[in-house]
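ok trying again, last paste got cut off:
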Amino acid sequence: MLNDKLHIGVIQTALDVDTAWVNHETGNWQQCVRMSDVEERRAKKEIRHYLASLRGLERQPDIILLPELSVPLGFEVTLKKAAESLESIIIAGLDYRIETGLAMPTVSNEAVVIVPKQLRGRRIARRTEVRRVGKTYPAPAEREKLQGLKLASVAFLPHPTVWIFESPEFGKFAVAICYDFMDLDRIVMYRNNIQTLFILAFNKDTTSFDHLAEALSRMLFCNVVICNCGQFGGSLAVSPFRETYLRSVYRHSGQRLPHAQLIQLPLAALAAHQMGNYSKDFKSLPPGFSNFVALRPKTQAV
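nice, full thing came through this time. structure:
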């Protein structure tokens, strides 16, 4: 049975892009696409600190988010233990993964979804499960930086897969990484299939993502949560409430402001509204949400 509310822990880490991935003059190209030692140590310390702060709350989060590229690859084991200890799902952006066995230097960008064997005191599986969600489209600046390394031109391996997760308590939710948020094909696949959309980002253009989150919350009729890095800020959560002042559930603006926050999103009532059991608390469903009409394209020269 769906929970009435969904409790989300949003962690903004303070990873510095200028020191995290350094374009080395000498050495191996792989050093250029891996988090520097200094930033890796700081990232691990910061993540531990904010996980401990969430653990100290009276109400534990159902799901915890960490931004794109924020987690050193060797830290996954610690995250898995944290998910089991907190009995919370952890969705975290990993540092670049170096792809082996390919003709040219190649990396991919992934997030990890860790589902512990026990949630909120209830055992749901025999063991903790881990799934990886890949990024399909690198941002233009991301592609340019990878291809412009002094030691080698590094290619980006896309993962053209759309993930939707389903939980009896937490509903249906999707996870996408940064630039994939703007993928129209992906958005169509989410329609009438999710209650919550999670975006892990390392994004400078926070204003554009703010507007996109507001629009897609209405068009997909779901909660939209963006977890951005603390260097740029701009993490937010919006829901399709009827009252304007209710729609912005959470917003954290400003650069270089790492922090952790527990937020509460509607769930059971939102899912019921999607199915036609309408509530006056929410906006009307968008056109074509449940009664889809196939439109026929026409082109006419004038």
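cool. The radius of gyration is 20 Å. The chain has one domain: 5-274.
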